[in-house]
Amino acid sequence: MLKVRDAMEIKSRLWIEKEGKPFIGFGRIKLLKEVEKTASISAAAKTLKMSYKKAWNLLNDMDKIAKQPVLVKNVGGKNGGGTEVTEYGKTLIQKFERLNTNCIKFLEEEFHQLDL
Amino acid sequence: MLKVRDAMEIKSRLWIEKEGKPFIGFGRIKLLKEVEKTASISAAAKTLKMSYKKAWNLLNDMDKIAKQPVLVKNVGGKNGGGTEVTEYGKTLIQKFERLNTNCIKFLEEEFHQLDL
DNA sequence: TATCGTTATATCTAAGTAAATATAACGGTT
DNA sequence: AACCGTTATATTTACTTAGATATAACGATA
Questions:
Q1: In chain B, how many domains are there?
Q2: N or C: which end of chain A has fewer CB within 10 A?
Q3: Tens-digit pLDDT profile for residues A17-28
Q4: Contact with chain A for residue B101, Cβ under 8 A
Q5: Residue B83: φ, ψ to 5°
Q6: What is the b/e burial string over B4-17, where b = at least 16 CB atoms within 10 angstroms of the residue's CB?
Q7: Which CATH number goes with the domain that contains A55?
Q8: Residues in contact with A25: Cβ distance below 8 Å, sequence separation at least 6, in sequence order
């Protein structure tokens, strides 16, 4: 017998590492998307209610690990500068989100034919 | 062109919640397996280098959430007592580990046909 | 050359979490 | 009844991590 409403739900988090160090994951992709939208690290940090330092650290670590540049940062100049997400960075967002979506779908299917 | 050795690797963590509260996940299942092996919370905590309190809390929370008892705890008596994992608890271990294995396999396949 | 908002970076403070410590309760065994 | 090793629980301490704060560097623009 199947229950109509089962409060149990499967959750998952996935991320990609390079040599044991985190490269991209849920939080970094969310941040990267916000940078893409605002073209600014500080603005992205603000909307995500995250300190600028933390955002900068996350993005910088990611950029150092990536085989191609993820960000183009401009210091000074018009409006103080800003940060753009490269085409490579945009593909990272797309690929990670697709992977995550597929994983969730897979897990939902597997989980629903389980009785805990 | 495919690289022979790509240091990038996909990682995942999955867990099951009930009404927003964690039910079982990587750490709890690992602990539960150790309790099954040693028939003792304190012994399991010691081998996993975890404080008894933390182990007890994790197991107790899990047990409270489960629809059936996961543990049979004996206080006092021969050897001070001990803790046994119920048949239901054993099925939880099996099902979670199978789910996790399947998920990893799925992600590996998806990930390997990705170029980051 | 003064201004502005950003990136870049260090340092200090706070908070949340884990760990350590202590102690009570328990009930077969001796 | 005393002992033992466990479960059960509270309280205190330590630590790691996150957050706040401060400040320098930058370079187009006016």
A1: 1
A2: N
A3: 998 889 999 999
A4: no
A5: -140, 130
A6: eeeebebebebbbb
A7: 1.10.10.10
A8: A13, A14, A15, A16
**Is the pLDDT at A114 greater than 80, yes or no?**
yes
What average pLDDT does the segment A92-106 reach? 97
What is the pLDDT, as a whole number, of residue A3?
Answer: 58
Residue B76, in any domain of the structure:
yes
Range of the domain at A93: 25-112
What pLDDT, on a 0 to 100 scale, did the predictor assign at position B102?
Answer: 98
CA closest to D17 C1', residue: A54
The mean pLDDT value of chain A amounts to: 92
Residue A71: how many CB atoms within 10 A of its CB? Answer: 19
Q: Which nucleotide does the CA of B44 lie closest to, via C1'?
A: D6
Beta bridge partners of A85: A71
Q: Are B12 and B103 in contact (CB under 8 A)?
A: yes
Contact with chain A for residue B114, Cβ under 8 A: yes
